[in-house]
């Protein structure tokens, strides 16, 4: 009753001959994404730090997007979501994406409100 797992990643773009090769390929992809995150965190390019989008620095948006990409890919490959029915995949993937987006929206608006309250002097900065 063995079930053969698909040995391709990136929708069939890269194909491997064994599970060991596939694991190394996935490890390399996740390592590259993590290296990009770390390099951006260390260097903090001025273009990403100075510009904002919806009240948050572009660098923070890049971190959030890359983290979601890694989480999605880990679930897709290591939790074998690609082998499941599309309705289960959608339920598992889209629910957290919606909830994380909603959480980010709430946090940004609340943080902006608190900042404006302190900035406009209704409450003094005491720290």
Give a verbal description of the structure:
With 127 residues, the protein is mainly alpha-helical. The protein is 67% helix and 6% strand. The protein contains four helices and four strands, in the order ββααββαα. The strands form two sheets. The chain has a two-stranded antiparallel ribbon. Strands 3-4 form a two-stranded antiparallel ribbon. A hairpin with a 4-residue loop joins strand 1 and strand 2. Helix 1 runs antiparallel to helix 3. The longest helix is centred in the last third of the chain and has 34 residues. It is elongated, with a radius of gyration of 20 Å. The mean pLDDT is 80.
Write the layout of secondary structure elements.
Blueprint: E1 8-9, E2 14-15, H1 19-43, H2 46-50, E3 52-53, E4 56-57, H3 58-78, H4 86-119
Antiparallel strand pairs: 1-2, 3-4
Helix pairs in contact: 1-3
- Global outline: elongated
Strand content: 5-15%
Strands, total number: 4
Please write the string of helix (H) and strand (E) elements.
Answer: EEHHEEHH
Distance between the termini: 64 Å
How many DSSP helices?
4
Helix content: 55-70%
Q: Strand order across the biggest sheet? A: 1-2
Oligomeric grouping of the chains: single chain
| Major sheet attributes | 2 strands, antiparallel
Q: C-alpha Rg, in Å?
A: 20 Å
Q: In terms of per-residue confidence, which ranges show pLDDT below 50 for 5 or more consecutive residues?
A: none
Q: In terms of structural class, how would the helical and strand content be classed?
A: mainly alpha
């Amino acid at each position: 009753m063995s079930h053969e797992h698909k040995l391709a990643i990136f929708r069939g773009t890269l194909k491997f001959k064994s599970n060991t090769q596939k694991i190394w390929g996935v490890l390399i992809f996740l390592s590259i994404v993590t290296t990009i995150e770390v390099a951006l965190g260390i260097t903090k390019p001025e273009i990403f730090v100075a510009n904002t989008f919806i009240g948050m620095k572009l660098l923070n948006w890049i971190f959030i997007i890359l983290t979601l990409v890694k989480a999605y890919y880990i679930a897709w490959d290591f939790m074998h979501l690609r082998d499941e029915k599309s309705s289960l995949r959608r339920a598992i993937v889209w629910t957290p994406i919606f909830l994380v987006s909603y959480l980010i929206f709430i946090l940004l608006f609340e943080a902006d409100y608190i900042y404006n309250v302190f900035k406009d002097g209704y409450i003094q900065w005491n720290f």
